[in-house]
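Hi team,

As requested, here is the filled-out complex form for the adenosine-5'-diphosphate run. I kept the field names the same as last time so the parser does not choke. Let me know if anything looks off before we queue the next batch.

— J.
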Amino acid sequence: MVPLAQQGEPKGGGSEWHTHSPEETEAVGAELAELLQPDTLIWVTGVLGAGKTTLIRGLCRALGITEPIRSPTFTLVNEYTIRQPPSLTGLPLFHLDLYRIETEAQLSTLGLEELLERGGITIIEWGERLPQLGFDHTPRHLWHLTLTPHPDDTRTITLTIKQPDQSPRL
Ligand code: ADP
Ligand code: MG
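And here is what came back:
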């Protein structure tokens, strides 16, 4: 994992956050947006209702995306255009959800490799399913985000940044 200090350390320290409301989870997404570089694939892991889409909404808002952000459970792929910061402006942001994807053939209908080749930001809910679906594309940057819900409605959010050379097959 790349030390976060090299990337600009998130407020609150380290790669773990504890949030008490959807708004706080969105705010973590906005902090994460500041660390993004082109050609990044993000897997977001967590049970239904963990707050994956909420976190992604905050991240998208910080990138100047104003459209409604909803789980692409049925549409499978949502595409937006990043409007800020200048280092990312104009690049696509793809939001996918693999909840209903169970086979390699179903995955291939998404055209994920073509999406990644466009060099933008690709965010995948249930992305941890990719290896078992035979996916072996190596993005420039790979992040794993995990959300763990607690009974008091708080959430623990962890970020792990993978180095591509350590994970040639993800
Ligand atoms: P997922 O995409 O993981 O299925 P969503 O983001 O769609 O989850 O839904 C999370 C739900 O939990 C929302 O209804 C949100 O309002 C609620 N919620 C309550 N507390 C939090 C919190 N601390 N962080 C995120 N969501 C929360
Ligand atoms: Mg969702």
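Two things worth flagging: DSSP finds four helices and seven strands in the chain. Residues 52-53, 71, 125 surround magnesium ion (ligand 2) (CB under 6 Å).

Thanks,
J.
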